Amino acid sequence: MVTCKTIISQLSDYLDDTVSAATREKIERHLRGCRRCSAVYDSTRKMLVIMGDEEVFEVPDGYGLRLHGFVDSLVSGAKSF
Ligand SMILES: [Zn+2]
């Protein structure tokens, strides 16, 4: 039986298209039936798209923090209207 762990460990190979046809079919079948793995698959694929756009994908230190501050400022700005 195929576990989520197996699927997730093979996802990057699947996305790289380096898996056998049988493995591909196994993964696709699992993804259709498993929300958790299809969510992981979706976010991994999106991440790869981002990485494909940029030669080196690096999130600068504090980026998440600044983004939070930005969102906070938007929220407080909206409140003052
Ligand atoms: Zn799964």
What are the distinct ligands in this entry?
zinc ion
| String of helices and strands | HHHH
Summarize the biggest pleated sheet.
Answer: none
Mean of residue pLDDT? 79
Judged by helices, strands and strand pairing, the structural class is mainly alpha
**Which residue ranges are poorly predicted, with pLDDT under 50 across at least 5 consecutive positions?**
none
Number of structural units classed as domains: 1
Task: Quote the beta fraction.
Answer: under 5%
**Residue share in helix:** over 70%
Describe this structure in words.
This protein is mainly α. It has one domain (4-79). The protein has helices spanning 4-16, 21-33, 35-53, 63-79. Helix 1 (4-16) crosses helix 2 (21-33), helix 1 (4-16) packs parallel to helix 3 and helix 2 packs across helix 3. The protein is elongated, with a radius of gyration of 18 Å. The model has no long low-confidence stretch (mean pLDDT 79). The chain binds zinc ion. Residues 4, 7, 30, 34, 36-37 line the site of zinc ion (ZN). Zinc ion (ZN) is lined by residues 4, 7, 30, 34, 36-37.
